[in-house]
């Protein structure tokens, strides 16, 4: 009886152990899998990556051209004028199309209905759960930024605070030459050009970046060695 009970129990034990085995690799995750933040976060980051790497030339060209025209318009006109002209242009297109479809339906005596009915029926309401998810994700970045600001301004690390001071000093010269809109235009040009150039000439760029990084590291180490507070902290 003991042998038979053991025999009957062994398949359940083996089945439970075999059922536990496939769940073990899921914790590590495959290299190409989305991170633990969720499929939506991974999907949005993948969309941005595809845009800046020109995976879809038409889509990237549309986004790049639209944002560039908007920034150039903001450089030439005020924000109120640009927004007003954009809204007027959009209303001109939608009203003209609405009147055109109404005339066509009256001539053909058809009953197709409203031309934008499919878009009017789309549910665009934001649920409270989605709102809280977005707020929680935003709060993570806000808290991280506040910790970084306190760390830099209260000089937790002298070298990092000196880096910020030097960067801000350089930005005073940049601000004397460029305004905010010009910097945004330059930033967009860099965002849509540097990644694709880096992807094409990755080996050569990594070589020179490594040289610059080694030189910068050696200079920082020399500066840290001359600062008494940093030297004492390293000795401890």
UniProtKB/TrEMBL annotation:
Main subcellular location of this protein, as a coarse class: endoplasmic reticulum
Domain Reticulon: 48-236
Entry's localization field: Endoplasmic reticulum membrane
Parts of the chain that traverse the membrane: 62-91, 176-198
Gene Ontology biological process: brain development; endoplasmic reticulum tubular network formation; neuron differentiation
Gene Ontology CC: one annotated term: neuron projection
Bias kind Low complexity: ranges: 1-25
First and last residue of the signal peptide: none
InterPro entries the UniProt entry points to: Reticulon, RTN1-4
Membrane topology summary: Multi-pass membrane protein
Alphabetical UniProt keywords: Endoplasmic reticulum, Membrane, Transmembrane, Transmembrane helix
Annotated segments matching region Disordered: 1-29
Protein name per its UniProtKB record: Reticulon
UniProt lineage: Eukaryota, Metazoa, Chordata, Craniata, Vertebrata
């Amino acid at each position: 009886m003991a042998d038979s009970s053991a025999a009957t129990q062994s398949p359940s034990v083996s089945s439970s152990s075999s059922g536990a085995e496939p769940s073990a690799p899921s914790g590590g995750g495959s290299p190409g899998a989305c991170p633990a933040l969720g499929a939506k976060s991974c999907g949005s980051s993948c969309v941005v990556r595809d845009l800046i790497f020109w995976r879809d030339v038409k889509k990237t060209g549309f986004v790049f051209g639209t944002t560039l025209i908007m920034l150039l318009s903001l450089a030439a006109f005020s924000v109120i004028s640009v927004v007003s002209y954009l809204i007027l242009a959009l209303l001109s297109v939608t009203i003209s199309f609405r009147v055109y479809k109404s005339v066509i339906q009256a001539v053909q005596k058809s009953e197709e209905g409203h031309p934008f009915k499919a878009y009017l029926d789309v549910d665009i309401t934001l649920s409270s759960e989605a709102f809280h998810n977005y707020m929680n994700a935003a709060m993570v970045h806000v808290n991280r930024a506040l910790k970084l600001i306190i760390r830099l301004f209260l000089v937790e690390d002298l070298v990092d605070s000196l880096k910020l001071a030097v960067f801000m000093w350089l930005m005073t010269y940049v601000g004397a030459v460029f305004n905010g809109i010009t910097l945004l235009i330059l930033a967009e040009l860099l965002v849509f050009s540097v990644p694709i150039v880096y992807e094409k000439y990755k080996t050569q760029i990594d070589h020179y970046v490594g040289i610059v990084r080694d030189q910068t590291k050696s200079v920082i180490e020399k500066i840290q060695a001359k600062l008494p507070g940093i030297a004492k902290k390293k000795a401890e």
